[in-house]
Amino acid sequence: MRILIVDDEPLARERLRSLVAELGGDEIIGEAGDGLDAIDAVQNLNPDLVLLDIRMPGMDGLEVARHLRTLANPPAVVFATAFGDHALAAFEANAIDYLLKPIRAERLAVALERVRGLAGLRREVLPAAGARTHLSAVVKGRLQLIPVAEIRYLHADQKYVEAVWPEGRVLIEDSLRSLEAEFPRRFLRVHRNALVAVDYVAAVERLDDGETVVALRGMPDRVAVSRRLAGEVRQRLRALGGA
Question: The pTM is what?
Fold first, then answer.
């Protein structure tokens, strides 16, 4: 198998590399020290298996697995961590195995055999609990990550949702309802088809035709506010010290 090792600690990566070499029969094709680099490496190297640490700065392993599920042919995932409190979340994410550090060679051998038992089939990783740091979309066959903290607003058009941020806009598969539930403090619903990022609201304006819109800092876009939600939007923003 072609294996990618992901861990923010160089000594932990070296330990896994040595164990895989000791067991023989598999190839380490690369390493990554954080979640963002891991996603790039998966797309560039196309591993069969990712040995994935859970606790990493920035994007943790559970979120990495969540993004990898959107790939057409995602790798199998085996989590490796020094902390036992993530075991339930790991298996809820359909991880093939969960290795507790310090990892023993015989325990790693069992995990690798379980992956081989899939007969070449890649496992789909289901969403893990907790809010993400990035949203993801497949653009021209590659996974693109959009930092949630940079998103100005989200707009629904038919069955797709468009995420808009200073670097552009991209269609994602998440629904507005699910995003509103996942990020209740970051995004505010202003219309049945739109959420705005509270931190970037510059003003709530009333146009000459009577329409209410939200102006966003650093963007020319105006997002329409429905009449039904106008009062609630103003109240929420006043409570947060905003517009």
Answer: 0.68
